[in-house]
Task: inverse folding
């Protein structure tokens, strides 16, 4: 591009646009400046103006082949299907939208569990005062109304705080291509979404608090007995091995509910710990698998070598010489010729690739089945297969546009599912793979001249030669030499834009992990505070019998460590299993090869971090319990 040497002109910005070519998914982005025709002619009266017409076909993609041939006959330079590009852009934005919904749903699920546990524990704490109120004549209904009134205030306060937080975080929600499609000016208060969400939050909190309120009112009715918890076998085991008394007491506080005024709902704390570790491990597996996917081109269909596109502006001889130079490179193990174009499969427009091996084999990542080997076979992308409502083994009707106009329609059997390169206009997970001869309509008959015919057809169609080298330094050096020899024709692998948006621009696994850590921390803190308050008399009795501060603090530490270890023992394997299955479902939905990744050292770090964080959270309650005055704790006795 020449260096600008003309005058500088001030232009007033009067609008912001978003066209298909502005999005990285559709093609290499080109950001245009839209002015009037008069601006160009004010500098050069001989400016050439090329007109572009936008049309909508009456029958959609079915009319495209006929329209292309008629437009070409009228002198049109080219016809581009903008619907396909728009679908690819929507497909790139869709994972972001789905990601936000999934994140909101998972966060709501974790929040519901935490809130249910907190309300149940709070109801248990208030049981003492409810027993007194019941003795004074307060009815069960009045007790339930009293509890639900408190719960209503909690729900309203949480809903207001949630709306404020959502408003403050609104500038961060539009990222990647979604931000190009809908430029945001900053903070946005979506009245409908926020008010509806706040109402749903209040209703959920009231629903979660109803059963604890009813249960507490029934339990504390005069004359009603208190449930006695069953002794724990683990506590009995610690007793049998002569564990330190402070450790034994801490384990018992973590595993046994207790009775009477000292009763603490330990089951909800255990469940919260297990769910937190499970969700965190599943998130770690999902995030590691996503990172592995974006760093492994073959998993998302990007060919593990280089693609040398045919340069239509150069002569056929140049492109043949480029192919000859590639073939003479000894380290090159696989070469196949490919062309692409739109076809109609069962009436749906699909971006297709046709390939023919010139050396070695076709370099295509398969999910299941096999590559097409006959002229009546086709391999589809997972998303395309799902959109068509077919399966491997089905027969579909395919219309392939012909250069002279019209389409060649024939039946093809689906023989497999493959992962297609993300640089196709159809987007990730979409596409169809044919043999080159079937795509050309049998133009190149079998025989000695078939190979030369196929090469010439690829050059004429503006296709590409895909190259893979032998593994090792020699192969990599050969690819480097070829890319330097033909720099304008080579295409390097690039991760799909929608995966980059999902994993890097937003990093949903990291956000959800932080949410899980926040909720898990809140659950454990609430449990520790409730336990210290409810079992204050027991602590006072222990200190009277000779327990020193260090022993009391150690007992609290053993209690929180037991809860954390229970979460690790159950949550780590369950989280790994859930993370693997969630990743497989996500990858299959995208149309990439599902390869879950479990990093052992990360799981060990999660386990160790859980224990460390739990003990750090226990420092405050442990200090309160150890420094408490036995006289004040036992004065009620």
Result:
């Amino acid at each position: 591009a020449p260096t600008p040497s003309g005058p500088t002109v001030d232009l007033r910005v009067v609008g912001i646009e978003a066209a298909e070519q502005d999005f990285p998914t559709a093609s290499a982005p080109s950001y245009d400046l839209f002015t009037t025709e008069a601006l160009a002619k004010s500098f050069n009266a001989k400016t050439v103006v090329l007109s572009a017409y936008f049309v909508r076909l009456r029958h959609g993609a079915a009319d495209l082949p006929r329209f292309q041939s008629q437009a070409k006959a009228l002198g049109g330079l080219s016809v581009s299907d903008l619907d396909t590009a728009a679908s690819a852009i929507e497909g790139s934005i869709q994972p972001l939208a789905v990601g936000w919904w999934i994140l909101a749903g998972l966060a709501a699920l974790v929040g519901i569990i935490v809130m249910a546990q907190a309300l149940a524990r709070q109801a248990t704490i208030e049981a003492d005062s409810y027993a007194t109120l019941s003795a004074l004549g307060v009815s069960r209904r009045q007790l339930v109304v009293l509890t639900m009134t408190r719960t209503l205030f909690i729900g309203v306060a949480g809903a207001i705080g949630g709306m404020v937080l959502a408003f403050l975080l609104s500038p961060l929600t539009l990222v990647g291509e979604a931000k190009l499609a809908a430029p945001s000016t900053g903070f946005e208060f979506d009245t409908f979404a926020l008010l509806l969400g706040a109402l749903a939050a209040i209703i959920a909190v009231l629903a979660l608090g109803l059963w604890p309120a009813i249960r507490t009112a029934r339990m504390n009715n005069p004359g009603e007995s208190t449930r006695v918890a069953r002794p724990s076998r683990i506590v009995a085991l610690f007793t049998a091995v002569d564990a330190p008394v402070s450790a034994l007491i801490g384990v018992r506080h973590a595993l046994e509910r207790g009775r009477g005024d000292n009763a603490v709902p330990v089951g909800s704390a255990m469940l919260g710990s297990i769910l937190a570790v499970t969700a965190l491990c599943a998130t770690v597996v999902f995030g590691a698998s996503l990172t592995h996917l974006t760093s492994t081109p073959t998993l998302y269909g990007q060919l593990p070598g280089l693609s040398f596109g045919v340069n239509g502006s150069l002569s056929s001889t140049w492109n043949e010489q480029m192919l000859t130079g590639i073939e003479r490179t000894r380290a090159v193990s696989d070469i196949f010729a490919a062309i692409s174009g739109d076809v109609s499969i069962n009436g749906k427009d699909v971006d297709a690739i046709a390939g023919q091996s010139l050396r070695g084999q076709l370099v295509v990542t398969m999910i299941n089945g096999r590559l097409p080997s006959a002229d009546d076979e086709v391999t589809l992308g997972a998303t395309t297969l799902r959109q068509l409502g077919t399966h491997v083994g089905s027969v579909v009707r395919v219309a392939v546009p012909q250069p002279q106009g019209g389409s060649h329609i024939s039946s093809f059997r689906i023989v497999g599912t493959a992962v297609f390169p993300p640089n196709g206009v159809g987007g990730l997970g979409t596409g169809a793979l044919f043999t080159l001869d079937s795509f050309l309509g049998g133009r190149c008959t079998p025989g000695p001249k078939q190979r030369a015919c196929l090469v010439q057809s690829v050059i004429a169609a503006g296709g590409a030669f895909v190259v893979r080298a032998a593994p090792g330094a020699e192969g990599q050096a050969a690819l480097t030499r070829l890319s330097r020899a033909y720099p304008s024709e080579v295409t390097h692998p690039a991760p799909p834009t929608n995966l980059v948006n999902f994993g890097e621009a937003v990093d949903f696994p990291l956000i959800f992990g932080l949410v899980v850590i926040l909720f898990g921390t809140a659950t454990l803190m609430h449990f520790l505070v409730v336990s210290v308050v409810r079992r204050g008399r027991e602590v006072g009795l222990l200190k009277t019998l000779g327990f020193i501060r260090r022993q009391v603090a150690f007992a609290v530490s053993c209690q929180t460590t037991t809860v954390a270890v229970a979460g690790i023992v159950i949550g780590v394997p369950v989280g790994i299993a859930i993370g693997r299955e969630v990743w497989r479902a996500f990858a299959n939905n995208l149309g990439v090869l599902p390869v879950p990744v479990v990093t052992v050292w990360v799981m060990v770090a999660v386990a160790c971090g859980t224990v460390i964080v739990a003990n750090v959270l226990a420092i405050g309650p442990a200090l309160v319990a150890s420094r408490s005055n036995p006289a004040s704790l036992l004065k009620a006795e």
